[in-house]
Amino acid sequence: MKYQSQKVATYFFTYAVVLFLVQVIVGVIAAVQFIAPDILPLKFNITRTLHINALVVWLLVGLMGATYYVVPEESERELWSVPLAMFQFWATVGAIGAVVVGFIIQGFFPQANITVLGTHLLSEGREYIEAPRWADWLIALSAILFMVNCAMTMIKGKRWTGINGTLLGGLAFMTLMYLPGMFYVKSMVKDQYWWWWVVHLWVEGAWEVIAGALLAFMLLKVTNAHREVLEKWMYIEVFLVLFTGILGTGHHYYWIGTPGYWLWIGGIFSSLEPIPLLIMVWDAFRTTRQHRVISNKLGLFYAVAHAIFNFVGAGLWGVVHTLPSVNKWTHGTQLTTAHGHLAFYGAYVLLVVAIIYITLPHLRGVKEFDSSRGYRSFWWMTISMVMIALTITGAGMVQIYMERLLGLDYVSVKNNFNFWFWVWRAIFGVGFLYDTWLLVLDFFKLGREPVKAHSAIRLEVEPVSR
């Protein structure tokens, strides 16, 4: 490995995969609680909060690790400050641990969520961004330190690349988009307006920009394709993601009392959001077909799968229910949950796993590794997630018909008409847990166990630019 500071990424990857396993375990518990709410003393609202926040955090940590690997290689110099990166890592671990403990304490003792200096101590109670205000500041500080470290590495580096520039833009966007969730607004309409800046523009704006840069790097790394061609398509993808994603936020606005023109803006640009994701799929297949010398087939397999399922989960499953004429019936139903599961899996879970499989052999200093467990984990994970998404989609369709058209109450529909959907979701959730365990096991064993000749992947060290 040319740049020793890239080893910092190993800490972030390790924490990410462990959190991934924790997130899935909590998700299975939440799925069981949806069927039997009183099975555990810790109630569904807390396990759901832990499940969703763990998802966001482990993906964020994984993206940080990926960036710490990419930036030194693209800049052709060591990381600006390894101590700063390690301080940021441990501060992030400490803050996340404290927030988790706070959520659990609140679950057993709701009265413990006292008000201190005008803010709640354990949880704000705002869906998806429940972290208390003191944790918000720590997370924002971590993001700023992360961005400064990467930016200084790029500035002092020997070269400037399009991948570096796109990454830096995505990091700045990611940091800024967290700030709108860090102040209180008394008006519910205004509060929801700013809330969507965090919830929507983080994942469909900033994170997609970072994903575009990382996909370009991965294709460059494993296929030795022409940098100029890859970066050209990366720019097109990122521009379209921002153009459609930012204005597509309007498909949330028209439900919170904002002016009626958001009905048209949100609907039109939501329907365009799958286009850049489809271009990512085409770019991945185009690059793979043109460059037959593949240095890491497993890593490329995950990278291409990321592009495909990003289009299917975030694109198709999203646009299916976000057009205004449809969303007036589907808004707030299990169809949204199905979209969320499949979109996060395709857009970011597979992305982080792909970059891990591409970079970890270099971090471990191995030229060959056993790929069989990685492929097995992929197929089990993907089949389980597709079945979970289809199961929840079916539940959502029943819910829409029974609640929105026939006027039945939520509890009746949940208990009497959707019961078997929830049972199957829990079963496939257990399957996904097994897949995740295979992935975590493979992460810790990769490069540290004997390699079977028929399942080895040889890693050729190829130049990353021409």
From TrEMBL:
Keyword terms, alphabetized: Electron transport, Membrane, Respiratory chain, Transmembrane, Transmembrane helix, Transport
Keyword Transmembrane helix applies: yes
PROSITE patterns: COX1
Pfam families referenced in this protein's UniProt entry, alphabetically: COX1
Location of the Cytochrome oxidase subunit I profile domain: 1-420
Membrane-spanning segments: 12-35, 50-71, 83-109, 137-155, 167-185, 205-222, 234-255, 261-279, 300-320, 340-358, 378-402, 422-444
Protein name (Swiss-Prot/TrEMBL): Cbb3-type cytochrome c oxidase subunit I
Organism: Candidatus Magnetobacterium casense
